[in-house]
């Protein structure tokens, strides 16, 4: 069996690492799966992509499309044409995609039009906000996929409500697999924390990259003012700046908001393994990232989500996560109220990647 795996954004490299490792394990036990990795180049900053091949043991991509930045239509169109040609040349049995990025949609559409079956890992997630490009991507991908592998039971319910029941399986969350695996190799916490000038459980960690926030000056300003106010001398706030966010701040004249409080500290994008340590050791995480919301729970760190909705509703229901949107007052109130919640029995036992591979192999 030959599988084409399409990845392009930071979280997808992490997910691919777990499944690629499970494929290697399957083959060592007598299986015969050939994986061909296609890197769309959607994330092109070295700290956002190359680091995954250098640090995590992800197989080197056979193809790198080097698409880079651009509008959603331009990016998706370039990827769609390039992936289509790869599928024609490689003649795979399956195409495997993860999550909800433009890379996900382009790969799924190219395969569906060539009648190559699509396997979607993280199927069924919904924010119910179609203004989000990610929501459109995940809905369309689910509706062309033949194998829909869900991280939660809520995702299965979402698919059922849309009339999708065939090929749907609950496998757990490959990101939980990754959290368990990479926490063991992330490095000595004291050394990582020293690099960023913070102490264990005495700093706050924030990430901001969603277009709904970075493309809206009012929302972005509200978030930055809240982060600045939350930063204290005895509990500074660390913000690794996504390239898109940095560019937007400069072009909008909002970079001055980063200088209001010396305890509000910005750094370049953080290597994945360093990020794991920072997440583990943070007192509080504030983020608009879907992946970081879950990672906060995996490491049992309270989280404030800088969005008006979340796909990971179980983290909110369990009390680990609070939705605060981009309103300065709401964010500050949520941060002050944040605390631990109850255990969530949704994400599996760290063997989701193995289940993905077994399900694919059963379709050979």
Characterise this structure:
The protein has a 7-stranded parallel beta sheet with strand order 3-2-1-4-5-6-7, sandwiched between helices. The protein has a 6-stranded parallel beta sheet with strand order 10-9-8-11-12-13, with helices on both faces. The chain has 16 helices and 13 strands. The termini are close together. It has 2 domains: 2-173 and 348-362, Glycogen Phosphorylase B (Rossmann fold, 3-Layer(aba) Sandwich), CATH 3.40.50.2000; 189-337, 3-Layer(aba) Sandwich (Rossmann fold), CATH 3.40.50. It is globular, with a radius of gyration of 20 Å. Helix 4 (102-113) links the parallel strand 4 and strand 5 (118-121). The protein has 364 residues and is α/β, with parallel strands linked by helices. It has helices spanning 10-28, 50-55, 72-90, 102-113, 133-144, 153-161, 174-183, 189-196, 211-214, 217-230, 243-252, 272-281, 290-298, 313-317, 328-337, 352-362, and strands at 2-7, 34-39, 63-64, 94-98, 118-121, 147-150, 168-170, 204-207, 237-240, 264-267, 284-287, 303-305, 321-323.
């Amino acid at each position: 069996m030959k599988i084409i795996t399409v990845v392009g954004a930071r979280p997808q490299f992490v997910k691919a690492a777990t499944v690629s490792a499970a494929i290697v394990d399957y083959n060592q036990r007598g299986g015969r799966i050939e994986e061909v990795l296609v890197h769309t180049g959607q994330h092109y900053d070295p700290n956002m992509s190359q680091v995954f091949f250098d640090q995590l043991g992800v197989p080197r991509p056979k193809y790198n499309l080097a698409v880079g930045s651009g509008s959603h239509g331009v990016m998706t169109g370039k990827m769609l044409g390039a992936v289509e040609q790869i599928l024609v040349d490689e003649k795979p049995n399956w195409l495997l995609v993860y999550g909800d990025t433009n890379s996900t949609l382009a790969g799924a559409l190219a395969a569906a039009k060539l009648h190559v079956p699509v396997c979607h890992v993280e199927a069924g997630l919904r924010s119910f906000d179609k203004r989000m490009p990610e929501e459109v991507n995940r809905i369309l991908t689910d509706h062309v996929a033949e194998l829909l592998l869900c991280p939660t039971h809520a995702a299965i319910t979402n698919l059922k409500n849309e009339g999708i029941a065939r090929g749907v399986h609950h496998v757990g969350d490959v990101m939980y697999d990754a959290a368990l695996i990479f926490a063991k190799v992330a490095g000595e916490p004291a050394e990582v924390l020293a690099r960023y000038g913070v102490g264990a459980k005495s700093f706050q960690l924030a990430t901001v990259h969603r277009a709904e926030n970075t493309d809206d000056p009012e929302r972005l300003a509200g978030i930055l003012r809240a982060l600045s106010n939350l930063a204290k001398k005895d509990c500074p706030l660390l913000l690794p700046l996504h390239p898109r966010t940095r560019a937007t701040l400069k072009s909008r004249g909002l970079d001055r908001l980063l200088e209001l409080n010396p305890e509000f500290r910005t750094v370049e994008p953080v290597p994945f393994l360093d990020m794991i340590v920072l997440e583990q050791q943070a007192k509080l995480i504030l983020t608009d990232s879907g992946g970081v919301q879950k990672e906060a729970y995996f490491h049992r760190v309270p989280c404030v989500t800088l969005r008006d909705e979340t796909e990971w509703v179980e983290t909110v229901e369990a009390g680990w996560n609070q939705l605060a949107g981009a309103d300065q007052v709401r964010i500050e109130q949520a941060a002050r109220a944040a605390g631990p919640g109850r255990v969530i029995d949704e994400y599996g036992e760290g063997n989701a990647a193995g289940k993905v591979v077994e399900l694919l192999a059963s379709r050979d």
